[in-house]
Amino acid sequence: MSKVLKLAGISISSVLGIEEMQITPGRRMTILRGGNGTGKSSVIEAVKAALGGGKDASLIHKGAAEGRVVLVLEDEHGFRTNVTKRIGQDSASVTVEQDRGDDIWAKVSSPQGYLNKLADALTTNPVALLTAKPADRLRMVLEALPIHATPEHLQAAIGDTTLEACDLHLNAIQKSEHALTTIATYRKAIYDERAVNNRAAKEKRATVEQLSRSLPADDMDRDDLINSLDDLEAQREALVKQLRDVENQLSAGRERMRVVDQLDNTRQTIKTLSGTADDCEAMAAEMTRSVEGLDELKVELLRTLPIPGVTVGDDDIEIDGVTFERVNTARRVEFAFQLAAQRAGDLRLVCLDGMEVLDATTFAAVCDEAEKSKLQMIGTVVANGANGQPMPLTVETV
């Protein structure tokens, strides 16, 4: 079973605007308060850099050769895990060492894999959610909620005929991919292929109509023409003197036969194009059903969101049947932290950068929720003195 960890210490050297800093976070909440340029956001970025992968030389403090961040994590039994991230100009490294007791420390063989389980909570910022526009808020909620579509879901929604026609392969679905991303990908592929079929059907129907108009109102009988030609051939042998007239009639008959053949070819073309148009229209209808099936699947998945009382509409979210903007402040804040908890791994840490944008009521509600929840939080607040000058950085813990 995974152990729940908390952040017990932060040590930062030469990262962004910080030369040296040590912080002992609070059990529930740590607020970094100070003016712009005092290092509040630098602390948040340093924590993210230590837990996240990759390298970013722009994090190194100006004039320094490398940056270093050390995070001390602690479980409920007091055993510690040290995470050390070094950032150089051309490379970066991370090590994770765990306390085994009796002053024995062991390195984790796959440090970034270990950290990936801890870092997910950092991607959901409740402050950003509370202050976002409805469209952005909806995107943030859907990205945070763990919804996945199985190949069985998609096959039932799309149908085998459409899958084969569009050359779609359900085994290409990534298990980690969000259900709405998967649905959008397959829906676009089917929608585009349906447009091709509809266009092909329309072109062939137009050709059928044009060729149909070229056919005469009165049909010509092939057998009668053949009999007439036979008679003329006989007369030609018997009436040599009338050869010229007979041959003129024969030539005319052959011309009519050519016309009949041309008309037969036109009829065959009409029949072929009509059949193809029928097939295209049938396939387009099947793809319409597939698109509708995917839309129904999206609705069905959104009905089973993992946070009670939350539903997703076309433009925004609703909580307990009330749109987000009309829900009281305490309930909005509670939802924001419920959403953050959905993404939390073993290290139940949330970063709240930019808390100064919250009004007094919302700020108080965030602090209350921090105390009630089981999440550990680090927040930043821009603070200036009475003369407008930036106040020095202070650390407040709860």
How would you characterize this protein structure?
With 398 residues, this protein is of the alpha+beta class. Helices cover 48% and strands 19% of the residues. The chain contains eleven helices and 13 strands. The chain has helices at residues 40-51, 111-116, 126-131, 134-144, 151-158, 160-165, 179-214, 222-238, 243-302, 329-343, 360-372; strands at 5-15, 18-23, 29-34, 67-75, 80-87, 92-101, 104-107, 310-312, 317-319, 322-323, 349-352, 376-382, 394-397. The protein has a six-stranded antiparallel β-sheet with strand order 2-1-4-5-6-7. Strands 11-12-3-13 form a four-stranded mixed β-sheet, with helices on both faces. A three-stranded antiparallel β-sheet has the order 8-9-10, covered by helices on one side. A hairpin with a 2-residue loop joins strand 6 and strand 7. The longest helix is centred in the C-terminal third of the chain and has 60 residues, at 243-302. It is elongated and about 125 Å long. The two termini are 28 Å apart. The mean pLDDT is 83.
Question: Secondary-structure map with pairings?
Answer:
Layout: E1 5-15, E2 18-23, E3 29-34, H1 40-51, E4 67-75, E5 80-87, E6 92-101, E7 104-107, H2 111-116, H3 126-131, H4 134-144, H5 151-158, H6 160-165, H7 179-214, H8 222-238, H9 243-302, E8 310-312, E9 317-319, E10 322-323, H10 329-343, E11 349-352, H11 360-372, E12 376-382, E13 394-397
Parallel strand pairs: 3-12, 11-12
Antiparallel strand pairs: 1-2, 1-4, 3-13, 4-5, 5-6, 6-7, 8-9, 9-10
Helix pairs in contact: 5-9, 7-9, 8-9, 10-11
